[in-house]
Amino acid sequence: MTVPYKKTPFFRIPYLAKGAKLSETEEAKAANIIENQLLASTKGVKCSVFQDGDYRTIDNMDGTWTVVLSSTGENIALEGVINGGYCYSENPVIWENLQSGQIYYLYAAYTDNLYADETAFSPISRIHKVQPSIATYLLLATINTMGDTPVLDRYPDGKVYGTDITLHVTDHVNPHGEHLTQDTITLKENLYAEVETDSGTVTSPMLLANGNGHLNTAARRKILVAEPLTNGSEGVDIDVPNANTIYGAIAQERCWEGQGPTFLVGEIAIRVFEDKVRVYNSGEVGVPLTVTVFYLKTVS
Description:
Immunoglobulin-like; 4-stranded antiparallel sheet; Tail fiber receptor-binding protein; 2 helices
């Protein structure tokens, strides 16, 4: 007498009972049920980032750049989903040979081994953005090497962070990430802006549009972050494309895990032009900086 397979109570996944003989048909059924439920659980979330660490740029001194994504004290280098498969890396993720004069989209790409090995993804750069419908590419960052100093954006349009659905419903701070692009928004009550002043943060209501139907200036203020090296009294330029008005900038020595402060920057001075800022320092040349520029973007 043939002993039948047992089945799990909910999905009815067959498994060997004591005395049952191995059955190709039942094993295939179990594998298909498991695969189907995995597909169902990731439907609509085939590509997303759970967490990513610190991005930094390296000048290779030959006209090319390298971007390194590494772990921090809080986050590992990368955890997420690519093409419905789990991806994970505690080791640095590296994009190399990024030529000057380009804008690169930095991806983690699916490979045939990813479903069996969560570390088997490939760092890939593209000068053209991959269509969001192509789920084999997970967008992580962009780098603009058109100017003298590369500008890296770790929150580009199209980057998706995945969060627990319950957390998403109750999360009132950036539930859709730090950047949001929306064709139409209907606002029933108020829109507020937080403005930093000498006396602290002030929350004030914003006018949504002026008489011409354009967003007012408060709604169009932008922040640009660049990572140049100091250049002493000659200064280093940070280009701000499409800037209408540059309000100012701050600069400080850049540190990361394994690279503590050198305190060799000295005093910093910043000159603001119409379309760029120039950062001078009284100390050493070649010290990594983080420069944050506050500006108003031109709106046609």
